[in-house]
Amino acid sequence: MPFAAGTARTRANSRRHARDDRAAGRHITGVALPALGIVFGDLGTSPLYTMQTIIGSLEGSPATSALGVLSLIFWTLIITISVKYCLLVMRADNKGEGGILALMSLVGMNDWRRGTYFGATLGLLGAALIYGDGAVTPAISVLSALEGINVATSALRPFVLPLATGILAVLFIAQRFGTATIGRSFGPVMLIWFIVIGLLGLREIVEHPAVLAAADPRHALTLLSTSGSRVLLLLGGVFLCATGGEALYADMGHFGRFPIRVAWYAIVLPSLLLNYAGQTSLLLAGIPQNTNPFFLLAPAWGVVPLVVLATLATIIASQAIITGSFSMTRQAMQLGWLPAFDIRQTSDKVYGQIYVPGINLMMGLATVAITLAFKTSNNLAALYGTAVSTTMVLTTLLLFRAMYRLWRWPALLVIPLAIFLLAVDGGFMVANLTKIIEGGWVPLAIGIVLFVVMVTWRTGIRRLRLALEKMTQPPSEFLPNLDQRAIARVPGTAIFLSRTAEHVPRSIIEYVCKVGALHRFVVALNVHFEEQPRVIGRRCSKQHLADGFWRATLRYGFMEIPDIPLDLESEADHTDTFDSRQAVFFANRDLVKVQSHWFLLRWQLGLFSFLYRNAVRATDRFNLPPDRTVEIQREILL
Fold first, then answer.
1. I need a surface site. Which of 184, 354, 507, 562 has the fewest CB within 10 A?
2. Residue 440: pLDDT band with limits 50, 70, 90
3. Is 499 helix (H, G, I), strand (E, B) or coil?
4. CA–CA distance, 427 with 73 (Å, rounded to integer)
């Protein structure tokens, strides 16, 4: 289907909203409330399964370890989320945008060559692992919520898995219709969720105020030192309370760092700590080890309403992961690490509302398959955490480069901070890697496959560009033919899309050879993606090379959706003598054939060829008018 690019009104609204969001940092109700639904869905629903998983890793009665468990959760949220992400990582914004790919570009690692291999590997592997995490998050979240009904009655237990599978399937199917309308309710629903879970926890704390002593880190250290061989299982469970940390950074461009920080410190963190403390109170009271303390916080009459609210909250958390995957796909495409996907704008008012059918289908199939294969949230806990804990380590490593190279922080500050944060992140990563045999390999395998796809695509495209450069002609050789009237000119305007911004593209040369004529006005147009989120100011630069012949470049940021006809029209000025509104566009549909094998392994050749054949056409990617576009297929030997 055609590529649904933004209209002029959409782009203008997006720029205005971006400026307004940053300016609205002082108004929590204006920006921080919507952030609750998008940014904190994963972190906010972690109490559903975190404590239940930790209990399963303990030896003996949970009551004896309760304060140590709460202390570990408390300091994990403080160190990993409050300090590392909110104060440090979110400071590393790329023109207001966040996410590990934006960070990779910010520190100058967006390339695949000597000197950038290590940094690019960190960023690409981290981004790829987020897809693996995104396939598991909806499954464990929705299952955890629906399993709460078992507290009220065991009669519905057989229906939990089918109902969870159905909800997840409907969620992915509904993506094609967009989330602009339902998205307005995300913030209020999550606000109600945080208030409810905070009050439920507070109710138990009043009964057992001794849990407040868990703020003393000695309880955490004592539990770690006495857990013996089960310490890694314990840390793997504790880490689940912080699995949504990457979302804070990835969604920073939508809301700005200040509203996210305000929402975290004022609403989310207090609610989470109160709820975890309330669950710990139940552990001290001696609840059975095979139960989920979260739903036991509610009175008997409130279990069913809490299950309904929890289901809504987990659907919102799943939606946030899916939307984030769409956004990251667009970033990877524009930065040159993935082939072009069909991207559709689903809202004429909210520029960030996009739908990527290919990614949606793959994630939907993976999520439903994982749900059916592992059946319960307890089983899924073995999958959860391996991918995101590894991504957190990779983000930390890139952050240190930003600290030292960009911010110019002294080594005496950076090195101790690096050692401390890497010790925390590394401990959690090692703990989660112990789950590989039990199922943790699934998200890691998804991430590694996508990493290989990204590297293969980048390497293959570089080789393709080198081949195309050999097929071009310097302007000094081609243009004299125009000046000497050696080429017949016919009325009209032709715009040839080109991968090179310096030479006359091969498509123009071949067109002249085959047709024996050229339009009166000709533009060799190159589309260039910047390593910044958005292009500020004029995005089109033009150079007049000869009579009726121009070379032009359209620049886009990695968060923007290209619309060539609209942008050429909006960038036109009084000096232009050609009319892009009636121009005929010429795009290439290359047929790649590989002859040499030096630049890729043999099995990668087939992968690159498959990716290139199935990449979305330029007509769809750049919103070219179908009735005024000619695609030229040509054979290119690599």
1. 184
2. confident
3. coil
4. 14
CA distance 348 to 426: 43
Torsion region of 40: left, alpha or beta (phi above 0 gives left; psi -120 to 50 gives alpha): alpha
Burial class (CB in 10 A: 0-12, 13-18, 19+), 215: middle
Q: What's the token pair of residue 307?
A: 């299950």
Tell me how far apart the alpha carbons of residues 452 and 280 are, in angstroms, rounded to a whole number.
43
Distance CA 231, CA 125 (A): 27
Rounded to an integer, the average pLDDT of 200-211 is: 92
**Beta-strand relationship, 549-556 and 540-546:** antiparallel
DSSP 613: H
Could you identify the residue written with the tokens 């159905």?
A: 166
The arithmetic mean of pLDDT across residues 590-618, rounded, is: 74
The sign one gets for the Cα dihedral 324, 326, 332, 337 is positive
464-502: string of b/e by CB count within 10 Å (b at 16+)? beeebeeebeebeebbeebeeeeeeeeeebbbbbbbbbe
Pairing of strands 344-345, 354-355: antiparallel
Separation CA 507–CA 495 (nearest Å): 11
User: In whole angstroms, what is the distance from residue 433 CA to residue 451 CA?
Assistant: 18
Cβ atoms 479, 543 nearer than 8 A: no
3-state secondary structure 273-317: HHHHHHHHHHHHHCCCCCCCHHHHCCCHHHHHHHHHHHHHHHHHH
Tokens of 419: 């050692």
Helices (DSSP H) in 434-530: which residue ranges? 441-471, 475-483, 506-515
The identity of residue 589, as a single letter, is R
User: Mean pLDDT highest for which of 154-158, 445-449, 605-609?
Assistant: 445-449
Q: At 132, is the secondary structure helix, strand, or coil?
A: helix
pLDDT at 14: 41
Strands of 549-556's sheet in order across = 540-546, 549-556, 517-529, 488-498, 584-593, 629-637
CATH architecture type of domain 9-67+132-434: Up-down Bundle (1.20)
CB 316 within 8 A of CB 186: yes
Q: Which two tokens stand for residue 593?
A: 């054939």
Distance between CA atoms of residues 308 and 238, nearest Å: 26
CB-count burial class (<10 Å; 0-12, 13-18, 19+) for 268: buried
- Ordered by start, the domain boundaries in the chain are 9-67+132-434, 467-637
Q: Which of 248, 243, 352 is nearest to 36 (CA)?
A: 248
Report residue 391 as tokens: 């991504």
Kindly state the tokens that stand for 175: 């993506």
Question: Which tokens in the block code for residue 18?
Answer: 């971006």
Residue 401's Cβ-count burial label (10 Å; 0-12, 13-18, 19+) is buried
CA 93 to chain centre: 15
What is the secondary structure of 56-100 as a DSSP string? Answer: HT-SS-GGGGHHHHHHHHHHHIIIIIIIIIIIIGGG--BTTB-SH
Report the C-alpha gap between 597 and 439 in whole angstroms: 36
Average pLDDT over every residue of 450-461 = 91
Residue 258: both structure tokens together: 């200040």
